Amino acid sequence: MFILILVVFIIGYMAIALEHNIRVDKSASALLIGTITWAILVLGAPQIYHVDTNLSVQELLESGTHFLKSLKEFFIYNFQAETSETSTLLNHFVLEELKHHLIEISEILFFLLGAMTIVELVDAHDGFSIITNRIKTTNKVKLIILLSLITFFFSAALDNLTTAIVMSALLKKLIKDKSDLWLFAGTIIIAANAGGAWSPIGDVTTIMLWIGGQISALSIVQALVIPSIVCIAVPLIFLSLKLKGNISRPESSEFSEHIVNPASEKEKKIVFVLGVVALLFVPIFKSITHLPPFVGILMGLGMIWAVTEVMHRSKNHEEKNRLSVIGVLRRVDVSSVLFFLGILMAVASLSSAGHLLILANFLETSIGDIYIVNLTIGLLSSIVDNVPLVAGAMGMYEVGPEIAGMSYPMDHKFWQFLAYCAGTGGSCLIIGSAAGVAVMGILKIDFMWYLRRISALALLGYLSGALTYYLINAYYYSPATTEVLNQL
After folding, report:
1. Which of 28, 62, 97, 374 is most buried, most CB within 10 Å of its CB?
2. Quick one: pLDDT at residue 404?
3. DSSP E strand stretches across 15-68
4. With 50 as the cut, is the pLDDT of residue 156 above it?
5. Number of alpha carbons in the 13 Å side-chain half-sphere of residue 245
């Protein structure tokens, strides 16, 4: 059963990669592997967790059987009497694991839905023309550098997922040709992930490390801003030598409702400003209340919803529906949200079954070197979600006194390099990051196209930034440099 979960995941992953060849939508494949792996886990729990259900809970705990630490803690906490049935508690453990992961997954999905709805509402009012009309250049090199820089710094201030959603909407307004659109989108993914890696609020993994006490806000900025710049600069330099000519702009409006009933200039500006404020409000709201980001984005959506309802109250039903949240919800790509749900559920099953824990221990015992371990984790995060990988690393290397080489203090280079690798390594595959999944769904980018055209660029940037971090630390922390600094 343990191996079967991994086999199902690999088959499903291949189905997602070969979506256009097998003509099965990636969302269907993702939902299947997400549900099937959990079904296998609950049905095969005794074999997977090596639990003899013929023994009582007390006998099992006294037997010294080696199984997951979390399972043992669950048994001890829930054990009430000798009559407690091992099989029942084991089943409850799997259900609790599923509920635990669903809480984290739901936070991401609600955030994604809220952000996508805000972006679509701004787009329905043609609000992005305020920006696109100011971008006059059609030169491919100048435009890709400009958009990448905007994405890089926006993702640090907001987060890479929100920025990717916003920039995807902008790209549809700026570029007509599909091949150019996808190329620019691939660069946006790299820039969004690179920008999120050096900010404590720029990526979910840096947020985890920041809240968990592994890194401090100032140290992560100082340590990773230069490697992150290199991570996006190297692909941009390569593309600037390759790209020629100009991009072709789309028609003035992609949607007929903009022509039939365009919003007034005043309404356009109000909705655009409110949309930007709602997105910028999320990190501020989180830092003040410490509530999850999805609460802030839903509050922002509620605010814009109420304002637009009042703004268009005098219009007839048909006109109001085109510019309201209710009308816009029909344009939100729900299939992408379901795809995200399936992928995260599948990875969560690997985490609960112990596959990721085995992987983390294997990396430590077989490799050991923190740079190579983190580089490997970064590359693995392009295949499986970086959140459980980082969570596994946080569990293995707890902050505190060093115990048998398995602990690192706050702001240690292990944590800093982990933040960089987990944040940027996911760019190597389009489904390796939340930003990539969002852009893939919005712009309908093909997995294999991204693999052929963007993955090598992303890998080049990833390794270049990693090398930069290594060289900076090797020089800065060398005995000779330390002696010079002490003398100063």
Report:
1. 374
2. 36
3. none
4. yes
5. 4
| Residue 268 forms part of a structural domain | yes
Residue 23 lies in a domain: no
- 379-to-131, 236, 277, 292, 413 alpha-carbon distances in Å: 35, 21, 35, 27, 18
Q: Which two tokens stand for residue 55?
A: 């023994």
Domain of residue 249, residue span: 106-335
- The answer to whether residues 187 and 233 touch, using CB atoms and an 8 Å cutoff, is no
Report yes or no: 43 and 1 within 8 Å, Cβ to Cβ: yes
50-72 burial, b if ≥16 CB within 10 A, otherwise e?
A: ebeeeebbeebeeeeeeebebbe
**Rounded Cα distance, 422 and 381, in Å:** 6
Residue 359's CB: how many other CB atoms inside 10 A?
18
Residue 185 corresponds to which tokens in the numbers above?
């989108």
- Between residues 376 and 59, the one the model is more confident about: 376
For helices 265-289 and 160-174, what crossing angle results, to 10°?
A: 160
pLDDT at 386 over 80: no
Nearest to 438 by CA among 180, 163, 153, 128: 163
Q: 36 is written with which tokens?
A: 């099937």
DSSP string, 289-351: H---HHHHHHHHHHHHHHHHHHHTTTS-HHHHHHTSHHHHGGGS-HHHHHHHHHHHHHHHHHH
Contact 407, 398 (CB under 8 A): yes
398: β partners:
407
Mean residue pLDDT across the chain: 80
Which residue pairs from 14-20 have beta carbons closer than 8 angstroms and sit at least 24 positions apart in sequence?
Answer: 16/343, 16/431, 16/447, 17/447, 17/448, 17/451, 18/447, 18/448, 19/446, 19/447, 20/446, 20/448
Total domains present in the chain: 1
Average pLDDT over residues 249-260: 54
Q: Are 377 and 422 in contact (CB under 8 A)?
A: yes
CB 426 within 8 A of CB 193: yes
pLDDT, tens digit (0-9, with 9 covering 90-100), for 408-439: 777 888 889 999 998 899 899 887 887 888 88
Of 124 and 57, the one with more pLDDT: 124
Written as one string, the DSSP assignment of 216-244 is -HHHHHHHHHHHHHHHHHHHHHHHHHH--
Tens-place pLDDT, residues 173-211 = 888 888 889 999 999 999 999 998 998 878 877 877 776
* Closest listed residue to residue 358, CA positions, set 415, 396, 386: 396
389: in domain: no
The first and second tokens of residue 392, run together, are 């596994």
Cβ-contact 31, 18 below 8 angstroms: no
Q: Give the distance from CA 38 to its chain's centroid.
A: 22
**Could you report the per-residue pLDDT of 306-330, keeping only the tens digit for each?**
998 888 887 777 777 778 888 888 7
